[in-house]
């Protein structure tokens, strides 16, 4: 078949465009995998790794091997090797980590920066007695007994949710006044597993109360004869919650995890990391799952010791030691992050899941049994006093 010059020209253009598309696709693929073109000794393709430096908040300075290199957020090509990364920002505690860059693999910092001078603001002003947080972490109930107006004494609730539609969040509201013979400051409180009911235990009476309906004097019915049955039902619900968590874990991890309390096992917000209390010594086998190329290179602890807290990464197959339960109290995930917060020796500390970047975010006198984290993870709520001999109140401490 004889083709005309115009047909040959069209075929040539199509071949050129096709070749350009193929070349462009390959170039983008290689660049995305960290390859760079070097012209030092003629054009050569060099394999590198990618460092994605991200932080909250952004616009933080990034030092690589003590040299100011860029600012967050940014992505850099680096030759494979070991690096010391430091991220700093005025008004925040520094973040640093020793990392290993691998060829064709992306390392992401995901640095959470915490304030160097936390902001402390009162939530209550007339005291807070026996504060108790709900199991879902969304609300705290407490009693007031020293209000200047007698009618203001009673039982209060404060919502610590991040729901933008809730205009009264972090503002205490009275849910019941004191009644004749009922002084709420004399009671201790325990929430139901679904956080919709609570038991108020007085020296002589025990009440089961709902937060879904107003609490009146008619609500105060002694349930002492039914208490054992109610507690058994709550324990059954708690066991179901724990089982649902345990079932998500590999079999070799399940055997190590404490099931004494739902608080002994908790998932990160992304549900790919689990904080757990070990109940026995064991050796965690390698390659429970096939680890990804970007598996963390931080030091692991797979030699498990009883009564230590660990974090197991379900995607990475890595296991990190957080610390012994004798030293670490009330460990819990900081929402929206890979950090764990706990109290230790009159200090509130945060640490990354891989046991790096241990920081003290608050130090001073506070009730070590009353440390609550707001749902957005930006604030800690605790019971403390502004100065010596002042009454204890609930304070919100902004840490990030």
UniProtKB/TrEMBL annotation:
<keyword id="KW-0812">Transmembrane</keyword>
<keyword id="KW-1133">Transmembrane helix</keyword>
<dbReference type="Pfam" id="PF08308">
    <property type="entry name" value="PEGA"/>
</dbReference>
<protein>
    <recommendedName>
        <fullName>PEGA domain-containing protein</fullName>
    </recommendedName>
</protein>
<feature type="transmembrane region" description="Helical">
    <location>
        <begin position="12"/>
        <end position="32"/>
    </location>
</feature>
<keyword id="KW-0472">Membrane</keyword>
<dbReference type="InterPro" id="IPR013229">
    <property type="entry name" value="PEGA"/>
</dbReference>
<feature type="domain" description="PEGA">
    <location>
        <begin position="49"/>
        <end position="113"/>
    </location>
</feature>
């Amino acid at each position: 078949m004889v083709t005309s010059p115009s047909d040959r020209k069209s075929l040539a253009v199509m071949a050129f465009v096709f070749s350009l598309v193929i070349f462009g696709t390959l170039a983008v693929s290689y660049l995305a995998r960290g390859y760079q073109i070097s012209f030092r000794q003629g054009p050569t393709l060099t394999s590198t790794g990618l460092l994605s430096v991200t932080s909250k908040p952004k616009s933080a300075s990034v030092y690589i091997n003590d040299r100011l290199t860029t600012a967050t957020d940014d992505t850099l090509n680096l030759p494979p090797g070991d690096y010391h990364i430091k991220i700093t920002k005025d008004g925040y505690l520094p973040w640093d980590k020793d990392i290993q860059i691998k060829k064709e693999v992306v390392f992401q910092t995901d640095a959470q920066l915490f304030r160097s001078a936390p902001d402390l603001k009162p939530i209550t002003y007339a005291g807070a007695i026996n504060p108790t947080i709900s199991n879902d972490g969304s609300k705290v109930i407490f009693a007031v007994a020293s209000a200047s107006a007698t009618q203001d004494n009673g039982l209060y609730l404060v919502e610590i949710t991040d729901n933008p539609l809730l205009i009264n969040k972090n503002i205490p509201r009275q849910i019941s006044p004191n009644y004749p013979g009922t002084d709420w400051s004399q009671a201790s409180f325990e929430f139901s597993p679904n956080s919709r009911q609570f038991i108020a235990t007085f020296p002589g009476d025990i009440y089961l109360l709902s937060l879904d309906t107003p609490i009146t004097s008619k609500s105060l019915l002694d349930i002492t004869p039914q208490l054992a049955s109610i507690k058994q039902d709550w324990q059954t619900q708690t066991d179901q919650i724990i089982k649902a968590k345990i079932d998500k874990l590999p079999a070799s991890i399940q055997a190590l995890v404490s099931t004494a309390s739902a608080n002994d096992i908790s998932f990160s917000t992304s549900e790919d990391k689990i904080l757990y209390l070990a109940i026995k010594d064991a050796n965690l086998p390698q390659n429970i799952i096939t680890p990804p190329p970007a598996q963390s290179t931080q030091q692991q602890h797979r030699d498990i010791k009883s009564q230590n807290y660990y974090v197991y990464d379900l995607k990475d197959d890595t296991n990190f030691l957080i610390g012994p339960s004798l030293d670490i109290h009330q460990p819990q995930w900081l929402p929206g992050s890979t950090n764990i917060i706990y109290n230790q020796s009159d200090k509130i500390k945060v640490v990354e899941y891989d046991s790096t970047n241990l920081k003290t975010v608050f130090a001073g006198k506070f009730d070590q049994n009353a440390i609550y984290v707001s749902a957005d993870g930006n604030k800690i709520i605790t019971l403390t006093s502004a100065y010596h001999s002042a009454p204890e109140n609930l304070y919100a401490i902004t840490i990030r």
